[in-house]
Task: structure prediction
Amino acid sequence: MPKFMLEDPRTEVYVGDCREVLAGLPAESVELIFADPPFNWNVPYSGWKDNMRRTDYLTFTYEWLDACIRVLKSNGSLWVNIPDDWAAEIVVHLKERGLQMVNWCIWHFRFGQCRDANFIVSKVHVLYFAKDRKSRIWNPDDILVPSDRASIYNDARTRSTRRPGLRVPLDVWYGDYLGRIQGANKERRPGHHNQIPETYMQRVIMGCSNEGDLVLDPFLGSGTTCTVARALNRRSIGIEFSEPTAASAFERIKSGAVRLGPDGKPTLESAPTDLGTGRRRRRDTLLYSDGVIPIGDDTEANRA
Ligand SMILES: C[S@@+](CC[C@H](N)C(=O)[O-])C[C@H]1O[C@@H](n2cnc3c(N)ncnc32)[C@H](O)[C@@H]1O
Result:
């Protein structure tokens, strides 16, 4: 039984080990699963020990992945947010289970922890798998972003394309509202670790589910997935091991998403209102030899 619940759309928060909770859910009942597990980095989560032996962590990982695969519909997608340490093992396991890779995306952020021993970590892998690539739910028109060609290079040809000035996002994610949630960011929920930005979840949920569909997060944390799913009129299930964490997530879910547009829905990255002037991205980009990279967390948007 869920511990916390809301209606319209139905949102259920379960407290417990996701492997056990998932085992009690009907097979093939969920359109979209987004998983952001503990990384085994010794993070002081409430109740959960984040420092297993490597082999134990992998056993845990394969068990929750298999439990997710069981509840995923045949047209559903499974996303995993995971660092370098475990990405390769997860990709191999999902392929062995017959899932098909759609994209291996990267979430790029700046403000990585300073170090001398090796390069500073500035990314997490965002693995996008489906049971069947061809029949999967996929709504590219709902997640479009301004193209560089239109907004930076002022290329007139972009005005006559099927989606003038817009394109499906790249497989490397960065930019406005996609920085790490920390400091004075207005999305930040104190007491939670590794919170995913709402804009990131908006892209996953809008791209891979329809209104009324069921979205599931086996590691709910601060509640980002259910918060954004509600704003986008999707049903959702969140599973969280720690009861205090789940209670805090539920308070957030009730308060709603903070990146809201005038229509009451979270905004996509801002539309290219100055299409053709070449101005839009100047304020948040650094020019380098073969293109542009965003300053990322340094942008005004990410400090909001
Ligand atoms: C990385 S955080 C998730 C952050 C979340 N994506 C957000 O935006 O806030 C991982 C969460 O999984 C929870 N957790 C760890 N092991 C779990 C398990 N076996 N079942 C359910 N939740 C678990 C932790 O308590 C923690 O809150």
